[in-house]
Design goal:
Blueprint: E1 13-16, H1 20-32, E2 36-40, H2 45-54, E3 57-60, E4 73-76, H3 81-93, E5 97-100, E6 113-117, E7 120-124, H4 131-144, H5 148-166, H6 172-180, H7 184-189, H8 192-207, E8 216-223, H9 226-240, E9 244-251, H10 254-257, H11 274-281, E10 287-291, E11 303-308, E12 316-320, E13 334-336, H12 340-349, E14 354-356, H13 362-370, E15 376-380, H14 381-387, E16 393-396, E17 411-416, H15 420-430, H16 433-448, E18 457-464, E19 467-475, E20 481-489, H17 493-507, E21 515-519, H18 527-534, E22 538-542, E23 558-561, H19 564-569, H20 571-577, E24 585-589, H21 590-599, E25 606-608, H22 613-626
Parallel strand pairs: 1-2, 1-4, 2-3, 4-5, 8-9, 8-10, 13-14, 13-15, 21-22, 21-23, 23-24, 24-25
Antiparallel strand pairs: 6-7, 10-17, 11-17, 12-15, 12-16, 18-19, 19-20
Helix pairs in contact: 1-2, 5-6, 5-8, 5-9, 6-8, 16-17, 17-18, 18-22
Length: 628
């Protein structure tokens, strides 16, 4: 016999049988957290009452072989030996663990009597010799070990998470052993703050007063949800391996507080970010850990992304307790999602379904699904993987079917600009070069589209042998989905961002037939011209002294000044423009270009706030859209 502990993780248990034995097995499974489904020709009163009180599904009919499909484990508990044997054979054929309640030797496992004290479970197995004796032992153990043991175990779980955050792996075992030896009553009564202090005291005792603490200690700002804390602890653990300990500062964001409203109705593109950045600005934290997809396309001038993590599975996932796939949902089925991007892409595939708002963390959404509020929901595979959570049916969508959000699956570690030492340590511990190139490409596209993190835009880049493949999907007014896919060889951050800018131009090009004049001061190819041409704009580049095309024959829609030097280079052409009774629109990149254009007598119609090419291209595209 091999004693094991099996965690439900939302997986379904099937019980075949409806009598007293089935009811006792069902009670044990429900207490352990398993969703149950009962199949029996007749379901007894005790089992029917349990289903009504604790939840679960049932089918009052004879057992069928495909009942075992999708189950995590199966219990055969009928009064018909032939049926039980058939259940065992079918389950094994489907590679599902099976217990025969009437013949322990025939199944894969037997169900031990159990005493549960919170997270602590004591199991008693007599090998099938005497279930009544196992029950007696369970009663005696329950009398000897009170609920404080469960409370103590919960405290130790929190201590263990804290130790993994603040200590390198080589130092953890001795500290955890010392903490586990503390009196049970003392452990049971500790709140989280006292528990952290006890961990620090244990570290001090074991190291001795003369031994040094870790080389540095940093504070990380994090959302307080289970997923966010898991993500932040992952980053902290990597730092701890380098001798840098982290204290986590839980922060409640606007998006966490306002869970009764849709994200796109909260009036901000930074609903999960702003409060974390405030903690950085007020120096209450040294770094912040974000789901990178939550970050706006442009950070504040005082903030920077110090590192991008290895990327988890970036795909979106179909989750259902009843239906095995998105395609199998019946017309009118209710699908829960809080993302406009997901909702519009899903509706393009299945307009016959009802899409409703769902808010809350991953655990909350899965619970609402199990309770039957939705026929299916859509979540990120990355979050499900990090939390090791699943619905009964969890199926990832193909990238080209539902294009993920920008940077989905990656973690971004943000610091104050200028905190070079902290940023350098984080980058060395966390940054993944391939993920960073892909995220840079995706965020450049988002900037060029001048959209926020909650816009109905999906962009995903991946590297295959040095070639970047980037998919884009943009839901426009009326529900149409514009899609593009580009492939380019990418070996630098600049090349990755140029690819993203090009995708944005191809994804949503400005009106065709526009003409712009772009004065140049350098010989190398222009990224501005390349991005605009990719979107169908005709670009005439002028060198210093060039007369350019005759403006009397065709006046350009816009003249672009990316630098003050470009204004000087365009003097000959500008002299030909001045006598005309009409003039093109003028766009300047940054304040110096704006001042030079004004001095030359060409007041800019539009100015990008900073001298950044991606922002300037986006501004030009917007202005071209305004031209008659």
């Amino acid at each position: 016999m091999l004693p094991i502990a099996l965690r439900p993780d939302g997986r379904r248990a099937l019980i075949v049988g409806g009598g007293g034995v089935a009811a006792r097995k069902a009670e044990s499974l429900v207490a352990a957290g398993f969703p149950i489904f009962v199949v029996a020709s007749s379901i007894g009163a005790a089992l029917r009452l349990l289903l009504a009180q604790r939840g679960g599904g049932s089918a009052e009919r004879p057992y069928e072989p495909d009942d075992v499909d999708g189950a995590a484990l199966v219990i055969a508990a009928t009064d018909d030996d032939e049926v039980n044997a058939r259940v065992v054979r079918d389950a094994r054929a489907a590679r599902v663990l099976v217990c025969d309640a009437t013949d322990p030797e025939r199944g894969d496992f037997s169900m031990a009597a159990a005493v549960r004290l919170g997270t602590v479970t004591l199991g008693i197995d007599s090998g099938g010799a005497s279930p009544a004796f196992s029950k007696r032992i369970a009663a005696e153990l329950a009398a000897a070990f009170g609920p404080e043991y469960g409370d103590a175990a919960r405290t130790l779980a929190g201590m263990r998470a804290y130790v993994k955050t603040v200590l390198p792996s080589a130092e953890r075992s001795a500290v955890l052993t010392a903490l586990a030896a503390l009196p049970v009553a003392e452990l049971a009564s500790m709140n989280p703050t006292v528990a952290e202090h006890e961990v620090e005291a244990a570290i001090d005792r074991l190291r001795g007063e003369t031994e040094k603490r870790p080389t540095a200690r940093l504070i990380a700002a994090s959302r307080s949800s289970a997923l966010a804390m898991t993500q932040t602890r992952t980053v902290a653990a990597r730092l701890a391996e380098r001798g840098i300990a982290t204290t986590i500062l839980p922060v409640t964001t606007t998006g966490d507080r306002e869970q009764h409203r849709a994200i796109d109705q909260l009036g901000s593109v930074n609903v999960f970010v702003t409060e974390l950045e405030i903690a950085l600005r007020e120096r209450r934290a040294d770094y912040a850990v974000h789901s990178c997809k939550d970050l706006p396309s442009e950070l504040g001038a005082d903030m920077q992304i110090a590192a991008i993590s290895v990327r988890e599975d970036p795909r979106d996932a179909f989750c259902s307790e009843r239906y095995p796939s998105f395609e199998s949902l019946p017309a009118g089925a209710v699908v829960g999602t809080s993302s406009p991007r997901r909702r519009l892409q899903l509706a393009a595939l299945r307009p016959d379904l009802a899409y409703e708002e769902i808010r809350g963390n991953v655990d909350t959404r899965l619970r609402k699904l199990r309770e039957g509020h939705y026929d299916a929901i859509v979540l990120a595979m990355a979050g499900l993987n990090r939390l090791r959570a699943r619905a009964t049916h969890t199926v990832a969508f193909a990238i080209d079917a539902i294009v993920p959000a920008v940077a989905q699956g990656a973690l971004a570690v943000e610091t104050r600009r200028g905190d070079d030492r902290v940023a350098s340590e984080l980058r060395a511990a966390i940054n993944d070069a391939a993920a960073e190139l892909c995220v840079r490409c995706e965020r450049a596209a988002l900037r060029a589209l001048r959209a926020g993190c909650s816009a109905p835009i999906g962009i995903h880049a991946r590297l295959e042998g040095g070639v970047a493949i980037v998919d884009g999907a943009y839901a426009v007014e009326g529900g149409a989905i514009l899609r593009k896919c580009l492939e380019r060889r990418v070996a630098s951050a600049g090349a990755a961002e140029a690819l993203g800018t090009e995708l944005a131009a191809r994804l949503l090009p400005p009106p065709a037939g526009r003409l712009v004049v772009l004065p140049r001061t350098r010989e190398r190819p222009s990224r501005i011209a390349e991005a605009l041409r990719a979107g169908g704009v005709e670009v005439i580049e002028l060198r210093a002294g060039d007369a350019g095309p005759d403006p009397a024959e065709r006046t350009p829609d816009m003249v672009l000044f990316p630098s003050s030097g470009a204004v000087a280079a365009a003097q000959t052409y500008l002299a030909r423009l001045r006598p005309l009774g009409r003039r093109p629109r003028v766009a300047a990149m940054g304040p110096h270009s704006e001042a030079a254009a004004r001095s030359a007598g060409f007041e800019p119609d539009a100015v990008s706030e900073e001298a950044a090419i991606d922002a300037f291209v986006g501004l030009v595209r917007d202005e071209l859209g305004k031209c008659p």
